[in-house]
């Protein structure tokens, strides 16, 4: 209806008291554009590390476990003795869980570039007809 009124008033130029003006209005619009940013990092590799130190309780524990396993496998005391010797020898090499090396691994994350641009919002036509001022908002 407003457009029809505007067009009909523009069609009769004798009714205007002055020149009609049209003003275009713009607004700022922010846009974000995603992108990947990657870099290499060193990641530790975990494993058993020799500590070089062994306590007496470690050796005793190894002998007990080895003796029990030797007895269970062979069923006699000679197997138990052999298992105790092997278990004690194995426990002499103290081990802990620790870092044995490093490997390169790529890590990525999403970041954003932000831009602002002006885009068309609307237009306003201003005119006066028969002494009455009009403002008509429209979209082109």
Q: From N to C, what is the helix and strand string? A: HEHHEE
Gross morphology: rod-shaped
End-to-end Cα distance, whole Å, is: 16 Å
Radius of gyration: 44 Å
Class derived from helix and strand content = alpha+beta
Q: Please give the order of strands in the largest beta sheet.
A: 1-2-3
Helix content: 25-40%
Tell me the number of helical segments per DSSP (H or I, 4 or more residues long): 3
Oligomer: single chain
Major pleated sheet:
3 strands, antiparallel
Count the beta strands.
Answer: 3
Average pLDDT, rounded to a whole number, is 80
Beta-sheet strand percentage?
over 45%
Describe the structure.
This protein has 140 residues and is of the alpha+beta class. Helix content is 32%, strand content 51%. It contains three helices and three strands, in the order αβααββ. The protein has helices at 2-11, 56-74, 77-92; strands at residues 21-50, 95-129, 132-138. A three-stranded antiparallel β-sheet has the order 1-2-3. A hairpin with a 2-residue loop joins strand 2 and strand 3. It is rod-shaped, with a radius of gyration of 44 Å. The two termini are 16 Å apart. Residues 9-14 have low confidence and may be disordered.
């Amino acid at each position: 209806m407003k457009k029809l009124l505007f067009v009909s008033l523009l069609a009769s130029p004798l009714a205007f008291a002055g020149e009609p003006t049209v003003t275009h209005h713009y607004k700022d619009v922010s846009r974000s554009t995603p992108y990947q940013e990657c870099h290499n990092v060193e990641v530790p590799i975990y494993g058993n590390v020799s500590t070089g130190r062994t306590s007496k309780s470690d050796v005793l524990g190894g002998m007990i476990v080895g003796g029990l396993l030797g007895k269970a496998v062979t069923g006699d005391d000679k197997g138990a003795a052999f298992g105790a010797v092997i278990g004690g020898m194995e426990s002499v090499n103290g081990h802990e869980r620790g870092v044995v090396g490093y490997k390169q691994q790529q890590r990525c994350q999403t970041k954003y570039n932000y831009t602002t641009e002006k885009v068309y919002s609307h237009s306003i036509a201003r005119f006066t007809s028969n002494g009455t001022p009009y403002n008509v908002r429209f979209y082109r």
